[in-house]
């Protein structure tokens, strides 16, 4: 129902029970985002594995709590971005480990194997 052309339609709001709590952002959602960001920033240095793993564990708990709360815990966007950053940190750590292994194997392959004796030794 609109009253004036160009005006936003008025949508009647449902009545809430007076004892219903106010919707609040989950504190775990903020923690997941912060830990995911730390994990992504330090992921290539392999130090981001720990905060990224904690972020993914907290995200699972926060999603469960948000489901049980029936919509009174918000912060799904923060959770989603935090999880993406945590997975990015884990991916960067895995890339760093693979690169280090490849460099180590190439150097090992180029090194002489066994003892390098002088030419006059039989």
TrEMBL record:
* Chain intervals with Low complexity compositional bias: 1-13
Say which domain of life the source belongs to. Answer: Bacteria
Q: What is the lineage of its organism?
A: Bacteria, Bacillati, Actinomycetota, Actinomycetes, Micromonosporales
Q: Which UniProt keywords apply?
A: Membrane, Transmembrane, Transmembrane helix
- What's the name of the protein? DUF4190 domain-containing protein
Organism of provenance = Micromonospora halotolerans
Q: Mark the transmembrane ranges.
A: 31-59, 85-106
What residue spans carry the region label Disordered? 1-22
């Amino acid at each position: 129902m609109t009253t004036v052309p160009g005006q936003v339609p008025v949508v009647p709001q449902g009545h809430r029970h007076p004892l219903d709590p106010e919707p609040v952002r989950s504190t775990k959602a903020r923690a997941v985002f912060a830990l995911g960001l730390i994990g992504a920033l330090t992921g290539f240095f392999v130090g981001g594995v720990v905060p990224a793993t904690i972020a993914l564990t907290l995200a699972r708990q926060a999603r469960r709590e948000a489901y049980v709360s029936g919509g009174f815990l918000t912060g799904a966007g923060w959770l989603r971005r935090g999880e993406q950053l945590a997975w990015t940190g884990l991916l960067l750590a895995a890339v760093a480990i693979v690169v280090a292994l490849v460099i180590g194997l190439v150097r090992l392959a180029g090194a002489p194997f066994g003892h390098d004796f002088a030419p006059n030794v039989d």
